[in-house]
Structure to design on (518 residues):
């Protein structure tokens, strides 16, 4: 039954698109605007998320070793550290390397060091963890190992940063939820207007003895088309605006991490298409339902 | 064809539009439903096509109890009932032809059936030559004829008409009446709500008189 009539439904949907071209265009433009706003927010949030991740990944644990550590003990210690879960990278910095780094950092002022005869700097491990939240726990665990002089991980900064990123992410999610909710309301109301304009036809069909699905299908298809076309339009506009904007930003701040990979942007496109099409379909279905009980 | 047993209809604003209605309308009858404005005529017709359900009592249409009818079956009840509304309910952005074909499409008629039926009913009401006209260019009488043509296009068992001669001059009204008699003679049961004294007296059909929601008279070959 449904598939037999699909041709009719599509023809009716397209017909009504043509019949009220101005109305359809206004509808599509309105929905496109809403979807662009959602899209801009999504782009901002994936970029902030990347930025936060970058910040977090700069957190590391530095372990200063006792000077009398033997080669065997060193290897043993390294094995012990890597066997802790959640370690991303362990890098050994020897006494000599530490000295060279200091020289480099001092630059012009490196003469200060000439007064000192022995290298006072300890060897160290620099450790990056997979999940910054585990940094304290891992640091405490390492502090227990033998030949470890001192463990440092910028405790206060780490705590503050993690607190900040936590709140920022939660707030972002809340705003996103509200925005999606609002956009669903607005889009379904826009669709409601297009259905309202055709309430007479709905009433006449119902009184003539059309089944409710027969009446609903053309509207569902029309709602889907309006949502889908709006989604595609807003993606095209967003895509161009976004690359224009990221280029401009990179001209000013070249090393700012920005999401520019198409594959990373794809989920946003999919989200917009789903939002547009689903709300289009559901919005028209519910609106028609209202005028059906004559 | 239509039976009502102790039917009451109250609207949400506590208006008792119909009170204790009992009636039997047989297949092929022509019945005038008369009474002043607000007597409950339109409400009576709405009950028949299940635009509303009774507050109390039973309405049986073609053997079906409309209050117990599941929503999914309402369309099939309505395919047996043609309705001519007081306010026409025409689609003014479609042609005469399309106004009729629209309803037929809505119940899944084939293109062949649609062409046949539209031609037939347009001939019957005498609007064949205006099939490409939009309704707002038709006279009141022609619009009424279009409504009738649309209502009978799928050959229903019952035709309900709500004050079809309300705003027409006597000669056009009589034309409409003759059209309805013609449809009635072909076997369609017709209920016509009206307070058009002239037409009712001339027609000499069964008259059911409503007053403040009650039937106060039911006469074969009655007058207003
Ligand atoms: N949908 C409705 N809601 C509330 N009251 C209504 C509604 N329809 C009709 N009525 C009231 O019910 C009574 C009967 O109305 P109606 O059946 O339209 O009478 P008639 O068609 O004889 O003029 C009137 O008092 C009218 O105001
Ligand atoms: Mg009335």
């Amino acid at each position: 039954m449904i598939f037999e009539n699909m041709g009719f439904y599509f023809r009716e949907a397209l017909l009504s698109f043509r019949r009220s071209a101005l109305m359809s265009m206004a509808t599509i433009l309105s929905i496109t605007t809403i979807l662009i706003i959602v899209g801009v927010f999504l782009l901002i949030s994936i970029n902030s998320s990347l930025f936060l991740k970058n910040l977090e990944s700069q957190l590391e644990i530095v372990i200063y070793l006792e000077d009398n550590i033997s080669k065997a003990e060193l290897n043993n210690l390294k094995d012990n550290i890597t066997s802790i879960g959640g370690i991303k990278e362990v890098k050994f910095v020897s006494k000599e390397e530490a000295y060279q780094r200091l020289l480099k950092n001092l630059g012009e002022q490196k003469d200060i060091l000439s007064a000192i005869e022995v290298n006072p700097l300890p060897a160290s491990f620099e450790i990056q963890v997979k999940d910054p939240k585990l940094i304290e726990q891992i640091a405490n665990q390492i502090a227990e190992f033998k030949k470890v002089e001192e463990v440092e991980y910028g405790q206060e900064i780490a705590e503050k940063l993690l607190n900040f990123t936590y709140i920022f992410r939660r707030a972002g999610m809340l705003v996103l939820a509200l925005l999606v909710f609002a956009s669903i309301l607005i889009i379904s109301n826009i669709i409601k207007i297009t259905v309202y304009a055709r309430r007479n036809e709905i009433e006449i069909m119902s009184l003539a003895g059309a089944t409710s699905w027969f009446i609903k299908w053309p509207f569902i298809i029309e709602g889907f088309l309006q949502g889908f076309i709006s989604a595609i339009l807003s993606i095209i506009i967003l895509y161009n605006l976004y690359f224009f904007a990221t280029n401009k930003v990179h001209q000013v701040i070249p090393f700012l991490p920005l999401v520019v990979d198409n594959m990373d942007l794809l989920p946003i496109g999919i989200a917009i298409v789903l939002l547009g099409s689903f709300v289009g379909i559901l919005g028209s279905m519910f609106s028609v339902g209202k005028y059906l009980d004559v | 064809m239509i039976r009502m047993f102790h039917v009451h209809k109250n609207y949400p604003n506590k208006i008792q539009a119909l009170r204790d209605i009992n009636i039997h309308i047989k297949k092929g009858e022509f019945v005038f439903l008369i009474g002043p404005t607000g007597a409950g005529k339109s409400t009576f017709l709405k009950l028949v096509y299940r635009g509303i359900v009774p507050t109390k009592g039973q309405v049986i249409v073609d053997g079906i109890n409309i209050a117990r009818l599941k929503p999914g079956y309402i369309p099939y009840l309505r395919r047996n009932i043609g309705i001519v509304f007081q306010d026409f309910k025409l689609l003014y952005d479609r042609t005469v032809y399309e106004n009729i074909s629209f309803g037929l499409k809505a119940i899944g008629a084939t293109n062949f059936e649609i062409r046949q039926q539209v031609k037939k009913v347009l001939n019957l009401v005498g609007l064949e030559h205006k099939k490409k006209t939009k309704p707002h260019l038709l006279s009141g009488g022609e619009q009424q004829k279009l409504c009738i043509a649309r209502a009978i296009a799928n050959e229903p068992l019952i035709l309900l008409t709500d004050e079809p001669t309300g705003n027409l001059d006597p000669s056009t009204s009589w034309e409409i009446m003759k059209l309805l008699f013609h449809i009635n003679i072909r076997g369609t049961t017709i209920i016509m709500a009206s307070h058009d004294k002239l037409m009712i007296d001339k027609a000499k059909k069964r008259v059911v008189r409503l007053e403040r929601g009650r039937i106060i008279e039911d006469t074969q070959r009655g007058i207003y």
Remarks:
- Residues 1-80+158-224 of chain B form a domain with the Rossmann fold fold (CATH 3.40.50.300).
- The longest strand of chain B covers residues 16-25.
